[in-house]
């Protein structure tokens, strides 16, 4: 198991530590779910001076002052961007943790080659980067019958990684370790998130739990741990505010048996034999009833639990336990199906964005409502 131990230190909480002024941040994966939401949150921080977002795809959420730069999947021009923007912080959200999103080759290019180029840029001569935050996954621990009840940040895998996504994440963490060792002046935080649920995020598990029929493996009732999508963004911002360094598990309190998870969601289990799962589920997957990636077969046998005490001990407070995250997720899904979409989907249009960001006609110093209120007061006085 990869470690970033030599660069780990105890830090004050975000509430205790004075906030830096004029921070310049680069966010990878701006067009992804996490990159866009992290950038939105950073925009609300007046102490963040500059936000640069990189991605192959355009942003999918509305952003007011984040500068979007289109790049290739392996971030080949990242060194030039870091040098030109003089960013002090990189938040690396662009790691593929969903094996159903793309081919193994594309995943390797994004996860491994992209991260390698990122650290090459951050460690270049005269680099201004002083904080790097990497969003990883507890998938690096694997899932096996020999596993401990709770993985700590130093726990090794029980078995060698065999799935491509697990191997790519392990390679990423190897680059994180090497960079932290070679650059002790940089705070390197590696956050391993457990299974994420929420109203907006889509993963193999959230897709499964929205079907009336959910697969289980006969003879197994594994325990799962979840983290709510809001706590994911809060954790990344906590690491940003606290200039955090080291490896941290991020997961809601408690583990929940899979049978209880499906019960909370009001779903019915389909028992599968604990072997040949891919062959049996293929027909159901083709008609959209079941989507069970090969990487999740062992998870549905043995589950996974991680010790989240290290992150809590430095001051992070979760808004949701594992059970609360599942309950909020399914209630949000039910509400959305009842009332429908409440707003149109955002569409990035470069010309429009350039107008709002740079046109002198756009008022930036005061909200329009304040201007109108001043005008009405002046008229009444006259």
What does this structure look like?
This protein has 382 residues and is of the alpha/beta class. It has one domain: Rossmann fold (3-Layer(aba) Sandwich), CATH 3.40.50. The chain has 13 helices and 13 strands. The chain has helices at 33-43, 78-85, 104-122, 164-182, 204-208, 229-241, 258-264, 277-286, 299-302, 309-313, 322-339, 350-358, 368-381; strands spanning 23-28, 48-55, 66-70, 89-92, 131-137, 187-193, 195-197, 213-217, 223-224, 226-228, 246-250, 256-257, 268-272. α2 runs parallel beside α3 (104-122) and α3 packs parallel to α4. The longest helix is centred in the N-terminal third of the chain and has 19 residues, at 104-122. The chain is globular, with a radius of gyration of 22 Å. The termini are far apart. The model is unreliable at 5-20 and 368-382 (pLDDT under 50).
Could you list some keywords that capture this structure?
single chain; about 375 residues; alpha/beta; Rossmann fold; seven-stranded parallel sheet; two-stranded parallel sheet; 13 helices; about 35% helix; disordered C terminus
- Derived from helix and strand composition plus strand pairing, the structural class reads alpha/beta
CATH class: Alpha Beta
CATH topology: Rossmann fold
Q: Report the order of strands and helices.
A: EHEEHEHEHEEHEEEHEEHEHHHHHH
Coarse morphology: globular
Helix amount = 25-40%
Residue ranges: pLDDT <50 for 5 or more in a row? 5-20, 368-382
Overall tally of structural domains: 1
**Number of helical stretches of at least 4 residues:** 13
Please describe the biggest sheet, giving its number of strands, its sense, and whether it closes into a barrel.
7 strands, parallel
Beta strand count: 13
CATH superfamily: NAD(P)-binding Rossmann-like Domain
Q: Using only CA atoms, what is the Rg? A: 22 Å
Distance between the termini: 74 Å
- The portion of residues forming beta strands comes to 15-25%
Q: Give me the side-by-side strand order of the main sheet.
A: 3-2-1-4-5-6-11
What does the average pLDDT come to?
A: 84
Q: Judging by the overall fold, what is the CATH architecture?
A: 3-Layer(aba) Sandwich
């Amino acid at each position: 198991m990869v470690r970033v131990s030599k660069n780990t230190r105890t830090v004050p909480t975000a509430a205790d530590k004075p906030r830096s002024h004029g921070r310049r941040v680069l966010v990878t994966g701006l067009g992804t779910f996490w990159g866009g939401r992290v950038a939105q949150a950073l925009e609300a921080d007046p102490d963040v001076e500059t936000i640069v977002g990189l991605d192959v795809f355009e942003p999918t959420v509305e952003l007011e002052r984040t500068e979007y730069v289109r790049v290739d999947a392996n971030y080949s021009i990242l060194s030039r961007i870091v040098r030109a923007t003089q960013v002090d912080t990189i938040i690396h959200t662009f790691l593929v943790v969903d094996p159903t999103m793309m081919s193994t080759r594309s995943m390797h290019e994004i996860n491994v080659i992209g991260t390698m180029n990122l650290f090459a840029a951050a460690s270049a001569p005269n680099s201004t980067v002083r904080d790097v935050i990497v969003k990883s996954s507890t998938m690096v621990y694997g899932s096996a019958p020999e596993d401990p009840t709770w993985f700590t940040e130093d726990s090794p895998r029980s078995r060698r990684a065999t799935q491509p996504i697990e191997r790519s994440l392990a390679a990423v963490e190897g680059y994180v370790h090497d960079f932290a060792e070679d650059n002790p002046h940089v705070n390197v935080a590696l956050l391993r998130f457990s299974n994420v649920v929420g109203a907006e995020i889509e993963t193999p598990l959230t897709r499964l739990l929205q079907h009336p029929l959910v697969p289980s493996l006969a003879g197994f009732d594994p325990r799962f741990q979840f983290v709510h999508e809001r706590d994911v963004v809060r954790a990344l911002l906590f690491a940003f505010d606290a200039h955090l360094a080291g490896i941290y598990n991020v997961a809601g309190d408690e583990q929940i048996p899979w049978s209880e998870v499906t019960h909370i969601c009001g779903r019915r289990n389909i028992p599968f034999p604990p072997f040949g799962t891919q062959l049996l589920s293929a027909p159901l997957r083709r008609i959209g009833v079941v989507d069970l990636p090969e990487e999740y077969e062992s998870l549905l046998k043995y589950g996974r639990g991680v010790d989240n005490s290290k992150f809590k001990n430095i001051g992070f407070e979760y808004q949701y336990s594992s059970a609360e995250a599942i309950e909020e997720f399914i209630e949000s899904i039910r509400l959305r199906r009842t009332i429908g979409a409440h707003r149109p989907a955002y569409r990035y249009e470069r010309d429009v964005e350039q107008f709002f960001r740079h046109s002198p006609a756009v008022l930036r110093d005061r909200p329009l409502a304040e201007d109108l209120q001043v005008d009405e007061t002046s008229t009444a006085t006259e």
